[in-house]
Amino acid sequence: MWRRVASLSALISSTSNRCFLDQVAYRMSTCKLFSSEVKENPLTLKDLFITFVLGGPGSGKGTQCAKIVETFGYVHLSAGELLRREIASNSEYGSMILNTIKDGKIVPSEMTVRLIQKEMELSNNHKFLIDGFPRNEENRIAFETIIGADPDIVLFFNCPEEEMVKRVLNRNQGRVDDNIETIKKRLQVFKASNLLVVDYYSDKGKLFEIDATGTEEEIFERVRPVFAAFQHDQK
Ligand SMILES: Nc1ncnc2c1ncn2[C@@H]1O[C@H](COP(=O)(O)OP(=O)(O)O)[C@@H](O)[C@H]1O
Ligand SMILES: O=c1ccn([C@@H]2O[C@H](COP(=O)(O)OP(=O)(O)O)[C@@H](O)[C@H]2O)c(=O)[nH]1
Ligand SMILES: [Mg+2]
């Protein structure tokens, strides 16, 4: 499965005679995502640059998103954070969301997409990192349908399971799902559902797979060239 992933390192080390920048340009030309019928949407979708940030629990998505925000000026929308905020706001859906998260399962797509949509509409920025979403095919299709857009690029932080478990157990943010029972369930969901989405974007040629082992700084040095390459293309 992973052989189909066109990671940045694979692009750079490619022995094909097309140079790296040509390949990035080719990738970008295949990333024109906004369908013609979405023009009336108040989000002015054609101006957006959307990155989905995927990876297992504890793979470092949130940590790397903070660095991308700092360096490249994106808006970071963590789907998990939006759901936790919804619980904290005493929303009528709070207990359903809390139970779903405790059980390591995935909240109904429309709920999550509406929360993301609201944040996108409130933002003055047009460059978004959507972190921890989509987690399954239903999420992916709901985003396409409700927002009317696809991501321009997708990052996938690939991390060994053992390392992810270690990081989550050391996270210390008081999260109801950072315990060994829930982590085991989340890892099952990750393998059964999240990876299908990763595979989908790999097949579409939009996936950048990042080795998520090493220090935060080492990982960011693998992330940086992806955004540097796309910086000038952003509307
Ligand atoms: N490269 C790294 N090495 C060790 N610990 C890390 C690394 N990156 C992140 N962490 C820590 O691991 C935990 C999970 O990281 P986080 O960014 O929250 O992952 P995710 O959002 O993918 O669940 C956090 O406590 C974070 O500080
Ligand atoms: O689109 C999403 C994102 C998150 N979650 C739920 O929120 C939890 C925590 O997600 P988050 O992305 O914050 O976890 P992380 O992967 O960063 O540890 C997940 O296990 C799910 O139960 C969800 O249902 N849909
Ligand atoms: Mg996170």
Automatic annotation (TrEMBL):
It is found in: Cytoplasm; Nucleus. GO terms for biological process: 'de novo' pyrimidine nucleobase biosynthetic process; nucleoside monophosphate metabolic process; pyrimidine nucleotide biosynthetic process. One of its GO terms (cellular component) is nucleus. It is an enzyme of class 2 (transferase). Pfam families: ADK. A ribonucleoside 5'-phosphate binds at R84, K105, I106, V107, G132, F133, P134, R135, R175, R186. Its main location: cytoplasm. Its EC number is 2.7.4.14. Its cofactor is Mg(2+). Keywords: ATP-binding, Cytoplasm, Kinase, Nucleotide-binding, Nucleus, Pyrimidine biosynthesis, Transferase. ATP binds at G58, S59, G60, K61, G62, T63, R171, G214. Binds 1 Mg(2+) ion per monomer. The keyword ATP-binding applies. It catalyses: UMP + ATP = UDP + ADP; CMP + ATP = CDP + ADP; dCMP + ATP = dCDP + ADP. CMP binds at N139. GO terms for molecular function: ATP binding; nucleobase-containing compound kinase activity; phosphotransferase activity, phosphate group as acceptor. Gene3D superfamilies: P-loop containing nucleotide triphosphate hydrolases (3.40.50.300). Consists of three domains, a large central CORE domain and two small peripheral domains, NMPbind and LID, which undergo movements during catalysis. The LID domain closes over the site of phosphoryl transfer upon ATP binding. Assembling and dissambling the active center during each catalytic cycle provides an effective means to prevent ATP hydrolysis. Catalyzes the phosphorylation of pyrimidine nucleoside monophosphates at the expense of ATP. Plays an important role in de novo pyrimidine nucleotide biosynthesis. Has preference for UMP and CMP as phosphate acceptors. Belongs to the adenylate kinase family. UMP-CMP kinase subfamily. Monomer. This is UMP-CMP kinase. It comes from Trapa incisa. The lineage of its organism: Eukaryota, Viridiplantae, Streptophyta, Embryophyta, Tracheophyta.
